[in-house]
Amino acid sequence: MSPTAGLDTAGCNADAFATTLQAAPDAPTDASAYWLDRGLLQWPGVAADDTGTYRLYHSATGAITAGPGATVTGADGALALSPNDSPLAPTLAARFDFIGDGVRLSLAPGDVTRVPALLRGQLVLVREDAEGTVLAATTLQHPGALDDLYAAATALDDLGATPGSDGTGFRVWAPTARDVSLCLYDDGDGAASARLPMQRDDATGAWSTRLPGDRSGDYYTYLVDVFVPGTGVVRNRVTDPYSVSLTADSKRSYVADLDAPALKPAGWDDTPRPAPLAAPTDMVIYELHVRDFSRDDTTVTDANRGKYLAFTETRSDGMRHLRSLADAGLTDVHLLPVFDLATVPESGCIEPDVPEAAADSQTQQAAVMAVAARDCFNWGYDPYHFNAPEGSFASNAADGGVRVREFRAMVQALHAAGLRVGMDVVYNHTTASGQLERSVLDRIVPGYYQRLDAHGKVTTSTCCDNTATEHLMMGKLMLDSAALWAEHHRIDSFRFDLMGHQPRHVMEQLQQRVNEAAGRHVNLIGEGWNFGEVADGARFVQASQLSLQGSGIGTFSDRARDAIRGGGAGDKGAAMFTQGYANGLHYAPNAHDTASRAELLHAADLVRAGLAGTLAEYVTTDASGATIPLSRLDYKGQPAGYAAQPGEVVNYVENHDNQTLFDVNAFKLPADTSRDDRARVQVLALALNAFSQGIAYFHAGGELLRSKSLDRNSFDSGDWFNRLDWSATDNHFGTGLPPAPDNRESWPQMAPLLADPSIKPTARGIAFTRDAFLDLLRIRDSSTLFRLRTADDVKRRLRFHNTGPAQNPVVIAGELDGGGYPGAGFEALLYLVNVSPEPQVLGIDAARGRRFVLHPVHRAAGAADPRPLETAAFDPATGHFAVPARTAVVYVIE
């Protein structure tokens, strides 16, 4: 009989989330050896010819001690191991290449069958002498064995709760658990109504039970009895990793059939989605935080401000603004994390009382940071449950059904506005691991879901506790989760946080899964940064910038971003004054400028690389006069061009990370730059982004000169430093020194800028930038030449004028050939971007005798920027273009 067959619900209702059933505080925890599969082990750093014999000691209770120079005590028994120098199977050799050389050991064939049971307790690998004295000892990392033993679990399609009219099933993968039981609750905060045993499936390692009737609307947790290295045998009360919704603050999982009418907003089944895009390069993305969208929008009803339902208020300033962007050519709204996150209290969050204070005062940030851990704001890059909508954006987080309906109502409203919905997902880390309360995965299968270092400690290169999607069931969780969002919540595209920490082959599997789930192509983009314990393919072929060629998955490009803005994303102190192409590098120096003409020429080359889609094989003439592919153009020791196709690159000049574009320019522009010119420089950067081949990505508020009062990392800076003003009245620059934790060392540089009233824009300047951005979207939308489909298209149809060592480096001139190209709209198109504060005249021999006229958007009544129509000029006899100061202008042959 199962030990949970009784009706004891004490563990379901206990205040403690974990109970130690049998302590093992002195047990070894260093895990330097690896299970390669169910019968093969490897101990890196221990040579095959080292003296001694090897034994694998086991204990059901975790009582083993194995100190050097003593004999092993507390074990229930031991298995003899034999050195094995046979070549590894190629798949194992590739998977474990990163662990380093060491003795390889085999279990006797008869002992291999004991491994599943032994993995449910303590295992210690020991090298000992003939008398049994310990020479060395370690525990083992077991994902290799679990993946070998339980590969069949990857086919399970009913993990989590699956209610139906014929009964409700519950299934959780817990192969190392000694026992698992199900706690049932009738509501979100009452005592458990039952505790029921679950049965183990030896083929998959999953535990399950099935109850009569449809239990939709009930709540549940699991009690998992499991051995935890360094702690002992523990009973963990834990929510379901496959939860589709939860109670407030994620205390209990919610039973739900996502196809049930009760979980759908009115009209959900009938509201059409925007049509799939013809190509990834048609994507024009707007990155937006749910709370930012409406928290300070007074045209939204009080109850909905900061919530999902704000998107359903069609007459609000925010929704009017989004519709105007959509009408101009915006295709996607990408939402910062909206899965269940750990850092915002879903019940009882507070809003700081920020006093009026000077523009450069520390007072505002002090008030914000005093309550930051309890306030209602966070970016949300701290996943708690991957498959459930976040509750702090719902009107009632305590009701698991409400957050599902209201999340869908938001998606439905955006779709009705003609906008596809993208979702920022964070599968590369969890908010906690080990025995911490918010550690969901690691308290069910300790040591499996997280990526470990050479000693078995959780790696944290992503900022938090890294996950290991190279392990089968963590990879499956990511695939299943993305498919759920695509199918049941109609998510159209995904942006993967730190995607370079995922294996390429898993991301390619995910692409197939989400396409199947949605019944259409779902676009995938992500951060392809190459760093940490997986850098340079150390553990697998990464989903990184230099490893995704040909995959069709897009990565963010830092090449043009850094060239346009200047400096790097992580700059602090004096480095923040380093200028870039758009804000004065060499040609309009600030007080800190030391840049040479050669640096300006190289920056211009990098900007052209971005305009050419960062394509590795696009050939250009560089500043030296050499004709080279972009893969040979240098970007900080890396190839400037890396993409195989334009749809594999995401172009951007700002996003939620680091200072906003306006704030960057506050550092970099000369101090005497006028307000009008600050707005123009903002538009220049946005224009270079809009004209670039590839996927266009914009940060919410960039078109409104959005400022975060110079904050370089506003993830936990509260509403105060993350405000958006859809009325285009205020950009919130100079609302206090930004929070100390990430900015204090730069306060001496920041304070004089914040105190300078000449930097803060007027409402007129904000409105100009907004309207100019809308015109840029209209220009991009007017022709497929700005969004060419293939690398061959770009190579054949895009050419740059004014290149090489004799160029005028402050003017970028790119020409696109529209002859016979579907959707081109024009025979030819030529854009000129003059970043100089002075007008420029550029002669282009190839333009002589041709019929170039201003783009229709420039000629339209009410065009935002009057300069192109008033002062730009083209002389066909000479091929000379007059380009106004700090202006982007587009000519066409119709």
UniProtKB/TrEMBL annotation:
Keyword Hydrolase applies: yes
Keyword rRNA-binding carried by entry: no
Ranges that cross the membrane: none
Pfam families (UniProt xref): CBM_48, Pullul_strch_C, Pullulanase_N2
UniProt cross-references to SMART domains, sorted A to Z: Aamy
Gene3D superfamilies: Glycosidases, Golgi alpha-mannosidase II, Immunoglobulins, Rab geranylgeranyltransferase alpha-subunit, insert domain
Keywords: Glycosidase, Hydrolase
Ranges of residues in domain Glycosyl hydrolase family 13 catalytic: 375-730
Family: Belongs to the glycosyl hydrolase 13 family.
Protein name, per record: Alpha-1,6-glucosidase domain-containing protein
Source lineage: Bacteria, Pseudomonadati, Pseudomonadota, Gammaproteobacteria, Lysobacterales
